[in-house]
Amino acid sequence: MLLFALGFLLVILQPSTGQFPRVCANVQSLLRKECCPPWDGDGSPCGELSNRGSCQNILLSQAPLGPQFPFSGVDDREDWPSVFYNRTCRCEGNFMGFSCGECKFGFSGLNCTERQVKTRRNIFQLTASEKNKFLAYLNLAKNIPSQDYVIATGTYAQMNNGSNPMFRDINVYDLFVWMHYYASRDTLLGGSNVWRDIDFAHEAPGFLPWHRVFLLMWERQIQRITGDENFTIPYWDWRDAEDCEVCNDEYMGGRHPTNPNLLSPASIFSSWQVICTQSEEYNSQQALCSATGEGPIRRNPGNNDKSRTPRLPSSADVEFCLSLTQYESGSMDKMANYSFRNTLEGFADPQTAISNPAQSGLHNALHIYMNGSMSQVQGSANDPIFVLHHAFVDSIFERWLRKHRPMLEVYPAANAPIGHNRENYMVPFIPLYRNGEFFKSSRELGYDYEYLQEPALQSLQDFLTPYLQQARQIWAWLVGAAVFGGIVTAMLTGLIRACRKKKGGTSSEIQPLLIESEDYNNITYQSNF
C-alpha cells in the first residue's frame, strides 16, 4: 500500500513519456497544430528562457517511401505527427521531452551533463528480493494512471479535424500496450475497408530501433513511478530453452490448473485485463482501440502450431543471424533475404536467411510459442513477458552493432516501407525520435547488458579494431609510401655525407662523431606504418 501511494505521488510530480501529452490534447492545441508546453522550471514554452529548447516547425523527411502503402492522406500516422501537430519543442544539448524538461537517454543531473550507463541483467540472476521488486513494479504500473499522457479514441477526422478532441486516461502499463497497438494497427479506409499491409514498428528497418525506444521509455517510466532510478529491465535469455522457463508463479505466471489457456490464480498477472486485442472488431467499426478491458491474459506456451514454430530458437540460430553483414536488403520488408533485421525479426530462416513468412524464427518464434495474448501483434505487449523477450532481442541487436560497427548510412535513408526511413519520426512517440537516432550502441544511450560487458583489454581492442581494419584496407599504399620514403631518406643521407666529406676533407682525426656515444641509446625510430 505504501509503494502504491508513493508511486501515485511520484507520477503526479514527474513527467512521463508516451504518446499525446495531456497539455496538448485540447481544442486550442489541435487547431493551432502546436504542442509546445511550458517547462515547469521557468514557465516558458520548451524551457526557452533557460536555453533548454524552443518551439519549432517540424522538419519532415522528403525521402521516397517503398511501394507497400499505395495511399496518401488517409492515415493519421503518415508523416508523423504532422496530422496533429506541425510545431513541437526542439530541445538543445542533452535535454529531451515534450517540454524539454527531461534528460536524453544516458544523461542525468540538473543540467543533464552527467553520463550514466546502467546494466540490464538476466532475470534468473536477480536475487529473490530484486525479482519480487520487479514484479511489484509491473503491477504498480498497471494500477497507476498516467498523469501526463492520454490516448486518442478517435481519428483526426472523427475529431472533426481537432475541434472535437477524443482522448481518454489510461494507466502507465496500458499506455505502452496502446502505443504498440497504435503503431501496428491497420489503416481505416472508410466503410468496411482497411489496409493491412502497414506497420510502423514491424516488418521493416525500424523494427529494432522502434522497440529500443519503446523499452527505454518503459524503463524510464518505471524508474519514475517507483522512485527507483537504478531500475533496469531484466531480460530472458531464451536460447536453447526447452520450454517457457519464466512461465511459473515465481516469475511471470504459471498455467491455470483447470484452464491451460489462462494464468494460475496464484500469479498477480492473473487479474490483469488485456486491451487492444480485438482488431477485427475495431476495423468493422472503423474505430480505434479505446483501451477498455477485454478479458484476462491468455497464454498456453508450447501448444502452438508446430508446423510454423517447431521449437524455441537455438544458440546456433542467433550466431548465424549475427554473422549476416547486411542490416537490410531488397524490399526491406518481411520478404527481404540475407537481412539481419528480417532474420532476427523472424520472417527469414535462421539457418539460411532466406525469407519464409510461413515459418516463424527467432523473435517471432517466441511470440507464436506463447500461444495466447503475445501471439497477436497489436495486443502482444499485454503479456509482461513481452518486455523480457524484447530486452533480449535488443541485446542481439546490440551484439550485431558491436560486431559489425556499421556507419549510420547503413540504415536505409529512402525507399523503406512507410515510417521506416532513417529520418522518419517514430509513430506514435511525442517527444519525437527519428529511426536513425537509435541505430547506435546501447552504451551511448545509457545502458548495457550484463552478458555483453567486456573487460578493459577487450574494450581497448574494440576501440582499436576499426582503425586496424582501415589500415588493412590501405596497407598496399602504406607499404609503398614506406618504401618510397626509405629510398628518399637514403638518397638524402648519401648527399649529406658526400657534402660533408667534400667540405671537411678526408682526415678522420678532424671529423667529429655524428653521434655522441651517450646519446646513441636515446635515438628513437618511427616507421611510416
TrEMBL record:
Gene3D superfamilies: Di-copper center containing domain from catechol oxidase (1.10.1280.10)
Keyword set includes Glycoprotein: yes
Signal peptide residues on this chain, from the entry's feature table: 1-18
Family: Belongs to the tyrosinase family.
Chief location of this protein within or outside the cell: membrane
Gene Ontology terms describing biological process: melanin biosynthetic process; pigmentation
Domain Tyrosinase copper-binding: 202-219, 383-394
Compartments, record wording: Melanosome membrane
Pfam families found in the cross-reference section: Tyrosinase
One MF term in the entry's GO annotations: tyrosinase activity
EC number: 1.14.18.1
Enzyme class: oxidoreductase
TM stretches of this protein: 474-496
GO CC terms, sorted: melanosome membrane
Region (Disordered): 287-313
Cofactor: Cu(2+)
Membrane topology: Single-pass type I membrane protein
Protein's organism: Erythrocercus mccallii
Keywords of the record: Copper, Glycoprotein, Melanin biosynthesis, Membrane, Metal-binding, Monooxygenase, Oxidoreductase, Signal, Transmembrane, Transmembrane helix
Protein name according to UniProt: Tyrosinase
